[in-house]
Amino acid sequence: MDSAPSATPLASSLLSIRPLPETDIDRALDLAYLVFHDTPEDEKRKHHRDLLLGCHRIGAYDGDALVGVLVAFPFTVSVPGGELPCPSLTFVSVAPTHRRRGVLSGMIAKLYEKCVADGHPLAALWASEDAIYGRFGFGPATYGNTVEINSERPLALRLTPDDGPLRLVDPAEAPALLGGYYDRTRAHRAGRIARSEAWWSEEWLVTEDEEDDELSPPRVVVLGARPEAGRPGGTPDITGYAVYRTKTRDDTSGLVRLDELEADTPGAAAALWRYLAGIDLTGVIRAWGRPVDDPLLLFAADRDQVRVTGHFPALRLRLVDVRAALLARSWAAPADLVLEVTDAHLPANEGRFRLTVNGQDATYTTYERTSDPADLAIDVRDLASAYLGGTPVTSVVRAGLATEHTPGAAATLDAALRTEHLPHTVDEF
Fold first, then answer.
1. Residue 103 sits in the same domain as residue 171
2. Using CA atoms, how far apart are residues 68 and 116, in angstroms rounded to an integer?
3. Is 168 within the bounds of a domain?
4. How many angstroms from the chain centroid is the CA of residue 394?
5. Does 159 share its domain with 277?
6. 63 annotated as ligand-binding
7. pLDDT tens-digit map of 162-202
8. What distance in Å separates the CA atoms of residue 144 and residue 132, rounded to the nearest whole number?
9. Is the pLDDT of residue 228 over 80?
10. Mean pLDDT, all residues of the chain
11. Entry's Gene3D superfamilies (predicted)?
């Protein structure tokens, strides 16, 4: 994924930005560990090195010294009606000796050049520090809830859970068993990355949790018939699954940490939640990164038992090519609006454009420059937040961050951007 070795000069003639070769990966890791105050063991370092081998890598150099690193995973992310390539930033590091010298700005500019050259209209990241990336045009496009359930008593539900068979499966078999099901669910929610078999096994289902070594290995429970009793050809008739870990705690009941739960129907989801709440010798379920519109929050009969304890921005999105991104997604309603877009970093996105979504099924879209007066003025950062359907443009207007020149313009755009399910991702990187 590396581009030709051109360099971008910075404030000092000795500072330049260029592709980071494989021979500098170990130096890049040393810098990242310095910045993030980390000292991983050899096995983890090897894993990080292997990850970086498959990524696009950008380095900032002061003479021969490596003083900045930016790495981008070659991900594909679901968008309404399809999916798009979406380079996703990680290992972003600037040496403490070179802060506030344009190193990060230069590396991100280099990434944008790469995205434009490759025809990738999106970029994404999870922010280690919230205040940094908004100024580069990244807006929070998905949100997550942390949910805690008191499972010292049976989980009270307002509906009857499905009575299909539940079975535990070997995590080593999970990528092959669940991969197709996960891919199908991606089509229903924007913001979700495509998982390779390696991502399943080496990131999602690793034996030892990196943040808490007292947690058990991953457990995978599947709802649905076995392959031989399922669909034609022996395909398992899965209607839901959950990935979780457990931990014994000396001073209180044990913990179930839920990493992921997917289900086709509310009844299937209820069956999986009831299973998790019934695990012996545990008394609390902690689920990090649940969708904001999780049906559990409605079918739980006792909201004192099921509590939202946290709400946070998750995936940040950047519209590198606004036109290509808008033309690539599907729409829920017709629209004819002139948008005045500001973008401090990518002039091609800036200006007034007429967005037209035509047809009874809102399938024909155009986005072209115009001299007509603007109906709505919005920054590219806020347009990115709204792109997947997760942040209403009307809310951005009410917050004073966008200007509605034509009454109802924001509501019209919201109706066109609307999705059946809110965007969501739980794959942190």
1. no
2. 22
3. yes
4. 23
5. yes
6. no
7. 999 999 999 999 999 999 999 999 989 999 999 999 899 98
8. 20
9. no
10. 91
11. 3.40.630.30, SCP2 sterol-binding domain (3.30.1050.10)
The number of folded domains in the chain is 3
CB within 8 A of 24, min separation 6: which ones?
Answer: 59, 66
Q: So what's the pLDDT on residue 3?
A: 39
Whether 271 and 365 map to the same domain: the answer is: no
357 is in an annotated binding site: no
Do the Cβ atoms of 78 and 421 come closer than 8 Å? Answer: no
Is 92 labeled as ligand-binding? Answer: yes
Burial of 276 (0-12, 13-18, 19+ CB in 10 A): buried
Closest CA to 178 of 259, 241, 272, 270: 241
Tell whether the torsion through CA atoms of 418, 187, 166 and 279 is positive or negative.
Answer: negative
- Kindly state the average pLDDT of the residues 317-322: 98
- CATH number for the domain spanning 348: value is 3.30.1050.10
Put simply, whether the predicted model's pTM sits higher than 0.85 gets the answer yes
Annotated ligand binding at 100? The verdict is yes
Looking at residue 141, what is its pLDDT?
96
**Would the annotation count 101 as a binding residue?**
yes
233: which DSSP letter? G
| Axis crossing angle, helix 42-53 with helix 25-35, rounded to the nearest 10 | 120
Per-residue pLDDT, 5: 43
Out of 11-20, 136-145, 279-288, which region has the weakest mean confidence (pLDDT)?
11-20
User: Which CATH number characterizes residue 262's domain?
Assistant: 3.40.630.30
What mean pLDDT comes out for the span 233-262? 86
Residue 167 sits in the same domain as residue 302: yes
Would residue 247 count as lying in a domain?
Answer: yes
- Tell me the residue range of the domain where 36 lies: 8-128
Name the residue type at position 198.
Answer: A
Each residue's pLDDT tens digit, 289-306: 999 999 999 999 999 999
What is the average pLDDT across 18-47?
94
CA-based max dimension of the chain: 69
Same structural domain, 305 and 331:
no
Residue 182 shares a structural domain with residue 307: yes
- Confidence (pLDDT) at 177: 92
- Does 27 appear as a known binding residue? no
Which one from 73, 75, 133, 241 is the annotated catalytic residue? 133
Whether 428 maps to a domain, the answer reads no
Residue ending a domain, choose from 95, 128, 161 = 128
Q: Which residues contact 236 (CB under 8 A, 6 or more apart)?
A: 177, 222, 224, 225, 226, 227, 230
Q: Are residues 251 and 333 in the same domain?
A: no
| pLDDT tens-digit series, residues 239-249 | 999 999 999 87
429 in active site: yes
Judge if 296 and 374 occupy the same domain: no
Structure tokens at 412: 């019209």
